[in-house]
Amino acid sequence: MEKKAKVKEISAQVDKPLFFSAAGLILVLVVFMVIFESSSGVVLQRAFDFLTDQMGAVYIWGTLISGGFIAWLAFGKYKDVKFGGPDAMPEFKTFSWIAMFFCSGIGTSLLAWASKEWYYFYSSPPFGIEALTSQAADYGMAYAMFHWGVLGWVIYAIMAFPIGYAYHNRKYKNLRFSTSCIGVIGEKNAKGVLGKFIDFLLIFGLMGANATSLASGTPMLAAACARFLGIPHTFTVDVVVIVIWTAIFTTSVTLGLKKGIKVLSDINVVLVMDICSMILVIWQTCFIFNNFTNSMGIMTSEFFKMAFYTDPVAKSMFPQWWTVFYWAWYFAYAPYMGAFIARISKGRTFREVAFGVVMGGSLGCWLFHAIFGGNALYNQINGLFDFGSVLSSSGDAAAIVGSLMVLPGSSILLVLFIFVGFVYSATTIDSSAYTMASVSSKDISGDAEPAWWNRMFWALMLGGLALVVMNIGGLVPIKTTSLVVAFPILIFVMVALVSMNRWLKEDKPHLDKATDNEDDRINLA
After folding, report:
1. Do 486 and 328 form a contact (C-beta atoms < 8 A)?
2. pLDDT (tens digit per residue) in 355-396
3. Element (H, E) at 450
């Protein structure tokens, strides 16, 4: 009896109106976009083209404002404020904390784009640089690292502060996007139709973005599995890969935050270190380090030019097709990442979260680009593997796998690559399912977690949606929709920042007293 009572106490009750309306509306929209793929795809693409081509500067300014806000929290008078109050202690060790938010934010997308993004910029460079030259190669690597660096992780981190402060410090008993806006829209509106709309943006944006990531990353991992097993890469292999993925992340998210997601993230980071170390030891260590150093120099010296680049006169569309696209993609994920980072960051100061997420995430992504991108670039320019030709003739999945197969010990590398690919996407999806379940729960306080069946439902929903869009279409409109909703998400992110600023001003006397007490404890020690 006591055991059952304990389980009941830590299981959050489902918010049925939000849960059923979100799930039902998503299913209706997905079915519509699958049936009317061509017409819906055209309409949505026009909407997205308008938002990126004509309103691209809004995404750029939204990103820079977010960066300024995080810098203010990290270096300003509130830098020592802790999520959960001055006496709160971290729930997770630093290694697991970093592993969890890093793995939740990247998935197999990083494996794929770290290997290939440099080539797109090498063949179609920015700033009027001549294609397929050494300068194009230099800027190709630098721009790839820019897109996966500080500003990208700023967008990922920004919502952790208003959501985390509302949950841990203001004691609102949920991790919702709408709750972070209460300081502006009021609690009544947050619990009403407007709040449901804001939370639906989170769920739908995340559903579309993750389904697209699974459907896009599957061919790469399936190609690696087919190469390892010596079988043709067919659609059946793609389906098997998604089924295995779904089994992994459904099991993980059902086990919960500490027994499932944390453990899987820890394993993933160890595997990543293994494969990266192996490539560095056996293959062109000096070139990889030199290329990384050179790319960091270009990215640093050209940072503000890249950050503000819109090219309104020449209209090359490079910033719209790449930088604005990335910022929109990150904003589609921003409320989810904010909610997840907030959930695991109790006991950490604003400065710790700002530095840990932005710099930890950036360094992790740069490591991948330096090693996987550096390897592919070296093979290309030295005639060991024509990455560009294979990409054009056989697709990016074949090019990514092929660039690894020229390395010594390629069979072992391929096995590690497959394991990392499976676990990376599994950690991203189970974190997403956990967050979606949290948003669709009424009250989550203390050690409470969303109901296990709620977590399992969203995990199965994500896997099932990926299978649907791969099998019968709908990928393009679903992907485009998730990016279109990034625009209203960006607007409400700004609302949430204003809301948090108001809360901090209201709570300043209490926060100052808490900081003084903390300083006294340090001095006494």
Report:
1. yes
2. 999 999 999 999 999 999 999 999 999 999 999 999 999 999
3. strand 449-450
Q: Which of 188-197, 205-214, 471-480, 513-522 has the lowest mean pLDDT?
A: 513-522
Question: pLDDT at position 516, please?
Answer: 56
Token couple for 276: 């990266």
Give the separation between CA 150 and CA 380, rounded to whole angstroms.
28
Type of residue found at 404: L
Amino acid code (one letter) for 245 = W
d(CA 219, CA 480): 20
Task: HSE, CB side, 13 Å, CA atoms: give it for residue 219.
Answer: 13
pLDDT-derived band at 515, boundaries 50, 70, 90: low
Place of tokens 């502006």: 184
Token code pair at residue 326: 């990335």
**What is this structure's pTM?**
0.91
Residue 524 lies in a domain: no
Number of domains in the chain: 1
Q: Rounded distance, CA 214 to CA 244, Å?
A: 12
Asked if residues 142 and 300 have their Cβ atoms less than 8 Å apart, the reply is no
Q: Copy the structure tokens of residue 343.
A: 């959930």
Q: Closest by alpha carbon to 161, among 384, 334, 379? A: 334
Mean pLDDT of the residues in the chain: 87
- 1 belongs to a structural domain: no
| Residue type at 522 in one-letter notation | I
Kindly report the CATH number assigned to the domain that includes residue 407: 1.20.1740
**How far apart (Å, rounded) are the C-alpha atoms in residues 151 and 146?**
8
Residue (of 421, 441, 495, 365) closest to 101 by Cα position: 365
Would 302 be classed as within a structural domain? yes
Is residue 63 over pLDDT 80?
yes
> What is the Cα–Cα distance from 229 to 238, expressed in whole angstroms?
14
- How many other C-beta atoms lie within 10 A of the C-beta of residue 277? 11
In this predicted model, what pLDDT tens digit does every residue of 219-273 receive, in sequence order?
Answer: 888 899 999 999 998 888 888 888 887 787 777 767 767 777 788 888 888 888 8
Measuring CA to CA, which residue among 12, 98, 82, 118 is closest to residue 427? 98
pLDDT bucket at 463, cuts 50 / 70 / 90? confident
Domain assignment of residue 5, yes or no: no
Q: Which domain holds residue 343?
A: 12-518
Amino acid type, 6: K
Radius of gyration of the chain (CA): 23
Task: Report angle CA 368, 130, 147 to the nearest 5 degrees.
Answer: 30
